[in-house]
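At this stage, I put together one protein's amino acid sequence and its backbone structure tokens, which the following lines show:
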Amino acid sequence: MKAISYSMYGSADVMEYGERPDPKVGPDTVLVKVRAAAVNPVDWKAREGYLQAGLEAVFPVIPGWDVSGVVVQPGVAVDEFAVGDEVIGYVREDFLSRGTFAEYVAAPVRTLARKPMGLSFEEAAGLPLAGLTAYQVLHRTLRIRSGDTVLVHAAAGGVGSLAVQLARHAGCRVIGTASAHNHDHVRSLGGEPVEYGDGLVDRLRALAPDGIDAAFDTVGGEALRASADTLAEGGRLASIADGEVFSYGGRYAFVRPDAKDLAHLAGLAEQGIITVNVDRVFPLEQAADAYRLNEEGRTRGKVVVTVAWDN
């Protein structure tokens, strides 16, 4: 099969397009014909070696954890899916090797859910990791409640845009940091935009004089500090970007594959309660360029790679 892979840690320059062996289908896995795979910041951080303390790389590594595609072979112990089913998945294992930037991926059944009807394969590929991150942080880590004032950083990004929508669906008031040119987009999602950068603490205090009940940091650094400085008494803080969150009494979160949570998100997408914005689409052979764009950190929504098929 054709795939993207890399044989050493490094920049996007180490990524190569070429032939890799077809994946084997274990009893609890599903062979998925990949139609689209989304790029996430964790993908290039893993490629550069930032996660090697916790995730061993078995080179050559095929990157990617997000996928949408079609089942071509269920494992012998799998009865949840059949040939021809359209699925989405957050296909993370406990090591780096067999990812989704390929024509096929063997996905553990625990990582999959049915693709939302009405979403394109490109849109659906952007839902699993970002959606699960937003959902699990909001509902499991921050334990948001209706009426809370919730702060979401990078509210126009992949995780942030879904977090805004999910928090609004939960009955929360949502304030989202974003650059000025993305403010209308944040409003369209149901959030109240605020410019990040110098003076953020003052702007947040003006918007929420009683403080923030739950702050979701996706950026780290100054954004994390501003979150801590503007929490209400008893406010909760979580970060997916900066381990310094512990020094502020907050929690660090890392998303888990969860088929039930993913199916719930798919249902919300089918109802139109959440939407996935796709910023740019690249063919598989140009995946390195997709990674470079994601690394700039300025996209609105998701960067997606597609796999061409004749049928």
In short: Residues 130-252 form a domain with the Rossmann fold fold (CATH 3.40.50.720).
